[in-house]
């Protein structure tokens, strides 16, 4: 009798804890390129997303105290097959309720088409920037969002920067892939619409032995400035080197792929007078996020703040909808990200969740000044840079 | 005046870059062609041998620079070159002893040796990346330009600038010296003659008392020297990055084959044919045309082919040469 009592008490305990478990645990997938070409960036992006989840779990404010568990998948950045398999596993066997990811534009599109849309899963990508992912006609069924701006936006920002500098004629060279081509084309469209003239829009291959043929063609076409939509540790630097050496161009304009300490290291004062821009939150927000991260990972690394925000948006939308089901909360993501409502910074997720629980409205700012436009993508905050005396300086914000 | 401008523009963007690129390719192709002529296989590891030689030279250059040694206007890397060549020679001799010798004694078919050299290529590839890393390395010092485009414009009053890089000049000068020494060695010395004899007819050479192992050893040492010099000159002129050396393999082979595999003169000619065709055919003649015919203001770029087709051009030439002269421009060995 005593044993029976003990056994029934124990089983009741197990049953209730199991019941409680199913109510209070939410799994969110993180699919990023933990291996592959951007693994060094993902080392800071993954922890960024996990930081937001830990913050919400600790606050106990999500849907009456639910705990959020991250489930990690490897997108590899380049292998669409591997990325799709990882997403499939996360959704069907782990039962995640939302996905932070993926990272590179190619695999992100593959996961969205093959896994997320058929399963009705919400994806929030921190770093896919291809204009091809802007779903103007609801092909994504309202499931895809990104906290990184589309490169179409960067083309417009680039045009504004150049026009303000009074530059009306440029030559463009781009790295021959989705990123380079997308950016160069969107820039050309925006620049010509604004009255500028693109003298030539030519591709270059990365990692080649010699760029004198490319630079010869660019120089012949002419222009006040050379726009290099490439990578600083790849062919982009080769083009700049060759253009400087032959005297083809003295000043350049650099989009995000070219900006970094490597550029200044390679060319120093030779690129004085050049300009550029890259997506970057304001200094106060960056300082706030750095303090929150507290040295756990590199807070200023590209797309780390966006990763934090991607995870935060999913959880805030769940709270606003009062449900963890993607079908219920997908329509809330735009609401929590944009005005009206109280501004919520990184590190204030508990406050935001509380306001939503009380029926109020929030305008999530987060670590990267989130503002979603159009089909659910970041408006984009750019830092405009200039080069003076062999150093990179901030020339403004857009 | 306009005609002068046109000539200067052509020289700056077509002739000078093509000559220095051509010399780099020629030095690389010479190494490939020597191996093919004497050891009778296509050495796919040549690009990475160049990378290894450049790496050894760079490491010693950094050491010299840290001691404060410099050559004034010339790059310090020239001083480090003998050390780099010695290190590369040791490496290729060790590889020959460990790998190629086994297949040579078996009298393996050339195609097997080609595949073996691909294996060696991957190992060397990894070795270089392991030691120096995958990133760009800078080791050039000394004067960068003999005359910059801006100085040229100021001095001559022309609209077009002409930039002469000291590394480009150095490449051409060193290439000429190296080629002269190599031809003197092959044609005038006893060892060189025995190498040519071995290349022409192995059995006859053996019968006349030539020691094959000695010929093989000397070939590898010369190839190590050529590869290191080519690798260092290329690194000085452009930049050192292990991956680009791997990519250089393709144009180098194209040069050697166009010129005629196994023929040293052909390798040099092939290097220049490939370099000039890559740069000239894709050059946009808009500016030059504007200078020559002032009345004509072309709307387009006056470009035969977009630069995207740069590699297609060199391979089209390769195919045409192989179709009409299977042994290459300068009668090499049939493939």
What would a concise description of this structure say?
The complex is a heterodimer of chains A (398) and B (335). Chain A is an alpha/beta fold. Chain A has helices at residues 2-24, 39-59, 80-92, 105-119, 151-164, 178-193, 212-221, 235-245, 261-267, 283-293, 304-321, 326-329, 333-337, 349-357, and strands spanning 25-32, 67-74, 99-101, 123-125, 144-149, 169-175, 197-204, 225-229, 252-254, 275-279, 342-345, 362-366, 372-373, 377-378, 382-388, 391-397.
What does this molecule look like?
The complex is a heterodimer of chains A (398) and B (335). Chain A has helices at residues 2-24, 39-59, 80-92, 105-119, 151-164, 178-193, 212-221, 235-245, 261-267, 283-293, 304-321, 326-329, 333-337, 349-357; strands spanning 25-32, 67-74, 99-101, 123-125, 144-149, 169-175, 197-204, 225-229, 252-254, 275-279, 342-345, 362-366, 372-373, 377-378, 382-388, 391-397. Chain A is built from 14 helices and 16 strands. The longest helix of chain A has 23 residues, at 2-24. Chain A is elongated, with a radius of gyration of 23 Å. With 398 residues, chain A is an alpha/beta fold. Chain A folds into two domains: 24-150 and 283-378, Response regulator (Rossmann fold, 3-Layer(aba) Sandwich), CATH 3.40.50; 152-279 and 382-397, Rossmann fold, CATH 3.40.50. The model of chain A is unreliable at 13-22 (pLDDT under 50). Chain B is an all-alpha fold and 335 residues long. In chain B, α1 packs parallel to α6 (166-188). Chain B has a single domain (2-324), classed as Orthogonal Bundle (ABC transporter involved in vitamin B12 uptake, BtuC), CATH 1.10.3470. Chain B is built from 13 helices and two strands. Chain B starts with a helix and ends in an 11-residue tail after the last helix. Chain B has a two-stranded antiparallel sheet. The model of chain B has no long low-confidence stretch (mean pLDDT 87). Helix content of chain B is 73%, strand content 1%. At the A-B interface, β7, α7 and α8 of A face α1, α5, α10, α11 and α12 of B.
């Amino acid at each position: 009798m005593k044993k029976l009592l003990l056994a029934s008490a124990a089983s009741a305990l197990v049953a209730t804890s199991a019941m409680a478990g199913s109510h209070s645990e939410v799994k969110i997938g993180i699919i990023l390129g933990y291996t592959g070409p951007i693994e060094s960036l993902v080392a800071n992006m993954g922890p960024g997303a996990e930081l937001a989840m830990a913050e919400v779990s600790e606050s106990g404010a999500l849907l009456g105290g639910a705990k959020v568990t991250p489930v990690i998948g490897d997108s590899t950045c380049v292998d669409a097959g591997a990325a799709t398999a990882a997403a499939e596993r996360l959704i069907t066997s782990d039962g995640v309720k939302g996905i932070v990811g993926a990272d590179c534009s190619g695999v992100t599109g593959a996961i969205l088409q093959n896994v997320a849309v058929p399963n009705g899963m919400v994806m929030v990508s921190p770093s896919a920037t291809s204009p091809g992912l802007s779903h103007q006609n609801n092909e994504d069924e309202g499931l895809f969002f990104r906290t990184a701006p589309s490169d179409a936006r960067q083309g417009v920002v680039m045009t504004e920067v150049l026009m303000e500098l009074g530059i009306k004629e440029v030559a463009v060279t781009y790295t021959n892939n989705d990123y380079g081509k997308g950016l160069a084309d969107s820039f050309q469209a925006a620049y010509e619409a604004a009255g500028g003239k693109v003298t030539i829009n030519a591709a270059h291959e990365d990692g080649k032995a010699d760029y004198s043929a490319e630079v010869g063609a660019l120089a012949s076409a002419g222009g006040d400035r050379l726009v290099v939509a490439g990578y600083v540790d790849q062919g982009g630097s080769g083009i700049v080197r060759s253009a400087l050496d032959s005297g083809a161009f003295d000043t350049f304009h650099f989009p995000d792929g070219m900006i970094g300490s490597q550029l200044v290291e390679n060319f120093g004062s030779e690129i004085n007078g050049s300009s550029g821009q890259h997506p970057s939150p304001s200094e106060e927000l960056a300082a706030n996020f750095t303090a929150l991260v507290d040295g756990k990972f590199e807070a200023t690394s590209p797309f780390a703040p966006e990763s934090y925000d991607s995870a935060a948006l999913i959880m805030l939308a769940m709270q606003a909808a009062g449900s963890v089901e993607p079908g219920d909360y997908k329509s809330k993501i735009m609401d929590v990200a944009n005005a009206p409502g109280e501004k919520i910074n990184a590190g204030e997720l508990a406050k935001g969740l509380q306001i939503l629980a009380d029926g109020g409205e929030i305008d999530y700012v987060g670590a990267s000044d989130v503002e979603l436009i159009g089909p659910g993508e970041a408006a984009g905050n750019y830092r405009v840079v200039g080069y003076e005396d062999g150093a990179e300086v901030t020339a403004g914000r857009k | 005046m306009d005609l002068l401008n046109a000539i200067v523009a052509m020289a700056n963007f077509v002739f000078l870059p093509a000559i220095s690129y051509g010399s780099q390719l020629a030095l690389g192709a010479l190494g490939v062609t020597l191996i093919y002529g004497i050891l009778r296989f296509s050495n796919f590891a040549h690009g990475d041998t160049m990378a290894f030689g450049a790496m050894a030279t760079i490491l010693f250059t950094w050491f010299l620079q840290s001691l404060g040694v410099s050559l004034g206007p010339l790059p310090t890397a020239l001083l480090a070159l003998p050390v780099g060549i010695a290190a590369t020679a040791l490496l290729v001799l060790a590889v020959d002893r460990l790998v190629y010798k086994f297949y040579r004694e078996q009298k393996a078919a050339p195609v097997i040796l080609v595949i073996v050299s691909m294996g060696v290529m991957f190992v060397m590839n990894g070795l270089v990346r392991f030691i120096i890393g995958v990133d760009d390395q800078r080791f050039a010092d000394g004067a960068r330009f003999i005359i910059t485009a801006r100085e040229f414009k100021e001095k001559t009053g022309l609209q077009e600038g002409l930039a002469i890089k000291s590394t480009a000049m150095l490449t051409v000068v060193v290439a000429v010296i190296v080629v002269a020494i190599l031809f003197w060695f092959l044609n005038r010395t006893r060892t060189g003659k025995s190498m040519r004899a071995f290349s022409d007819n192995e059995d006859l050479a053996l019968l006349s008392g030539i020691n094959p192992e000695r010929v093989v050893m000397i070939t590898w040492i010369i190839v190590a020297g050529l590869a290191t010099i080519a690798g260092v000159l290329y690194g000085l002129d452009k930049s050192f990055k292990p991956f680009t050396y791997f990519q250089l393999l393709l144009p180098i082979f194209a040069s050697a084959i166009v010129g005629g595999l196994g023929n040293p003169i052909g390798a040099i000619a092939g290097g220049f044919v490939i370099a000039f065709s890559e740069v000239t055919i894709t050059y946009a003649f808009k500016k030059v045309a504007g200078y020559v015919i002032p009345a004509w203001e072309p709307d387009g770029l006056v470009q035969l082919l977009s630069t995207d087709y740069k590699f297609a051009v060199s391979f089209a030439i390769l195919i045409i040469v192989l179709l009409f002269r299977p042994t290459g421009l300068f009668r090499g060995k049939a493939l």
